[in-house]
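Quick review question:
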C-alpha cells in the first residue's frame, strides 16, 4: 500500500516542469545535529564554540587559500542564471535557496564580506554579508539540501562546482561544532569498527556464512563469500549495505558468483568492511584519509594483489580520484591492474575475455532501465575509454538481460539526476527533502515506463538503491523495482561444471 506522506508529494506529469518560486518552502528542513560524542569522535568540538564566528571566518580563509578551485568558484560567478533550474532540489521544492547560485551565495556573501576589498568597504553594493546566527542557520538548512551531485556544474559556463562550496560550508560548520548527526555518527563508527553499520567481525562472518548457504540452496553451487583470507588475489571493498540491505545484498551475491565463475580468489576484510567514505560529504580530508587508510592496511595485512570496489557511487569517486593520494602508494599490488578497480570493470573485462557466459532469458521477466549515479557519472571514470562510466555498466546490463531501455537523454549520462539522497542526506529526518528531490528522476522513470513498460531500474550505488527503495512508493511505484546491476549479472550467469 502506498505510504501516507505528511507533506505534499510532487505530481508526475507528461514532462518535468520548472516550478514556481516558493520562497522559504524548505526553510524548515534541517537534519538532526550531531551530539557532542559524534563530533568529538571525528576530531571536532562537541558543541557550537563560543567564538564560532571568528573561528568560522578564519577557517573559510584557510579553505580558500588552500584551494585555488574554491577561490575561483567564489570569485567567478556572473549570475548568468544557467544553473538555476538544474538542481533536483529546486525542481522538487521551488525553494529559491535551492537554486545552485543562491546556495553558493550563502557562502560567497560571507567570503566577500571578509576576504574582498569591495566587501569590506562597500558590503551592500557587492552583496557581502556577516556570518551571523541567521546566516549560520541558513547554512545548516541549505547546505544540507545539496547532495553534492555536481549536476549544476555541468551547465555552468565557468564550471562552478556547488558541491565543493557545500563541502567547504559543512567543513566550516564541523570546525565550529555544528555537525550533522547522520554523517558524523557514521564516520565515527567506521573509525571504530570499520563500517558504517558498526557491524563487528563475528556479525559479518555470520552474515557471509548465511549468504553462502542461501546461494547453495538456491543454485546448488558452493559459491564462497570469504572473510579475512590471507593471500587472496582480490580484496573486495564494498558498501556495508551490501551485507544486509535489499536490494544491495543480491548485488553482493552477484559479485561472489562472478569471482567464483572466473576462478578469482577474493576476500572481504573485517578491518576495511566499508567502501563508503562519508568524510567526502563533510569536506574533511583527515576523515577521508583515516577511512581510506584502513583499506591500505587491510590490503597489506591480507597480502592481496588487487583492490576491487563494489557498487557504491561516492565510494568510487573517492576510490578513483583520491585513494592513491590519501592512502598510497599501492606499489605492493599487482601493477597490471589499476588501483582500485570497480566491480563493473572486472565483470566487463571478464565478459570481453569470454570468461563469463549468460543465459539472458533468466532475466526475461525484467524490462530494465539504468540510473547513472552522480558520483560515478560526473566525478569518475571507468575503463580505458572516455565515457566508460556510462558505457561499461550498460554493456554489463545488456550482456545479462534482453530488455534494456534508457531514460530520456537529458536525464542520463553526464546530465543524470541525483536520486535525491546522496551527499550525506540519506536519513529519515530529511524524508521530505529526499522525496521532493527525487521528482526529476521519478519523472524520467515514468516516461521510460510509459513507453516501454519498465519493471526495474538498475543502479550501481548503495545510496541510490536505499533512496529509491524508500521513495519509489511515494510516486506510486514499488520499492522492489530498484535492483543492483550485479543482481542481473548473478541471476543470468551460467556456471560451468569445473567450478
Ligand atoms: S551539486 Fe547537485 S544538489 Fe548541489 S546545488 Fe548543484 S545540482 Fe543541486
Ligand atoms: S551557471 Fe555558473 S556563473 Fe551562471 S549563475 Fe550559475 S554558478 Fe553563476
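Suggested answer, residue by residue:
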Amino acid at each position: 500500500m502506498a505510504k501516507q506522506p505528511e507533506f505534499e508529494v510532487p505530481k508526475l506529469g507528461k514532462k518535468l516542469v520548472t516550478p514556481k518560486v516558493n520562497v522559504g518552502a524548505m526553510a524548515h528542513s534541517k537534519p538532526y545535529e550531531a551530539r557532542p560524542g559524534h563530533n568529538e569522535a571525528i576530531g571536532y568540538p562537541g558543541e557550537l564554540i563560543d567564538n564560532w564566528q571568528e573561528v568560522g571566518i578564519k577557517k573559510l580563509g584557510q579553505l580558500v587559500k588552500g584551494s585555488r578551485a574554491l577561490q575561483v568558484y567564489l570569485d567567478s560567478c556572473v549570475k548568468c542564471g544557467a544553473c538555476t533550474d538544474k538542481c533536483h532540489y529546486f525542481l522538487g521544492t521551488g525553494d529559491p535557496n535551492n537554486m545552485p547560485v543562491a546556495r553558493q551565495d550563502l557562502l560567497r556573501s560571507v567570503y566577500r564580506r571578509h576576504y574582498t576589498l569591495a566587501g569590506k568597504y562597500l558590503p551592500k553594493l557587492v552583496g557581502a554579508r556577516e556570518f551571523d546566527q541567521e546566516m549560520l542557520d541558513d547554512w545548516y538548512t541549505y547546505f544540507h539540501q545539496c547532495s553534492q551531485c555536481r549536476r549544476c556544474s555541468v551547465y555552468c559556463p565557468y564550471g562552478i562546482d556547488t558541491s565543493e562550496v557545500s563541502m567547504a560550508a559543512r567543513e566550516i560548520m564541523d570546525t565550529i561544532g555544528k555537525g550533522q548527526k547522520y554523517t558524523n555518527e557514521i564516520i565515527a563508527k567506521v573509525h571504530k569498527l570499520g563500517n558504517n553499520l558498526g557491524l563487528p567481525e563475528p556479525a559479518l562472518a555470520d552474515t557471509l556464512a548465511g549468504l553462502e548457504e542461501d546461494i547453495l540452496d538456491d543454485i546448488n553451487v558452493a559459491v564462497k563469500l570469504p572473510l579475512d583470507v590471507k593471500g587472496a588475489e582480490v580484496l573486495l571493498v564494498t558498501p556495508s549495505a551490501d551485507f544486509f540491505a535489499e536490494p544491495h545484498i543480491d548485488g553482493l551475491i552477484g559479485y561472489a558468483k562472478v569471482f567464483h565463475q572466473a576462478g578469482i580468489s577474493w576476500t572481504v576484510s573485517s578491518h576495511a568492511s566499508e567502501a563508503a567514505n562519508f568524510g567526502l560529504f563533510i569536506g574533511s580530508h583527515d576523515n577521508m584519509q583515516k577511512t581510506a587508510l584502513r583499506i591500505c592496511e587491510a590490503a597489506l595485512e591480507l597480502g592481496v594483489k588487487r583492490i576491487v570496489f563494489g557498487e557504491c557511487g561516492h565510494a568510487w569517486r573517492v576510490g578513483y580520484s583520491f585513494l592513491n593520494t590519501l592512502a598510497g602508494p599501492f606499489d605492493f599490488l599487482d601493477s597490471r591492474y589499476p588501483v582500485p578497480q570497480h566491480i563493473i570493470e572486472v565483470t566487463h573485462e571478464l565478459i570481453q575475455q569470454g570468461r563469463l557466459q549468460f543465459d539472458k532469458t533468466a532475466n526475461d521477466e525484467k524490462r530494465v532501465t539504468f540510473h547513472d549515479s552522480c558520483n560515478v557519472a560526473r566525478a569518475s571514470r571507468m575503463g580505458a575509454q572516455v565515457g566508460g562510466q556510462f558505457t561499461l555498466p550498460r554493456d554489463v546490463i545488456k550482456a545479462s538481460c534482453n530488455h534494456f531501455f534508457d531514460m530520456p537523454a537529458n536525464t542520463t549520462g553526464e546530465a543524470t539526476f541525483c536520486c535525491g539522497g546522496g551527499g550525506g542526506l540519506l536519513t529519515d529526518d530529511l524524508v521530505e527533502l529526499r522525496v521532493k528531490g527525487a521528482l526529476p528522476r521519478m519523472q524520467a522513470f515514468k516516461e521510460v515506463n510509459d513507453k516501454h513498460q519498465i519493471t526495474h531500474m538498475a543502479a550501481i550505488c548503495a545510496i541510490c538503491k536505499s533512496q529509491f527503495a524508500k521513495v519509489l512508493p511515494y510516486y506510486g511505484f514499488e520499492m522492489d523495482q530498484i535492483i543492483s546491476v550485479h543482481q542481473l549479472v548473478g541471476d543470468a550467469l551460467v556456471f560451468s561444471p569445473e567450478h
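Why it works: Residues 29 and 141 are 6 Å apart (CA to CA). The mean pLDDT is 96.
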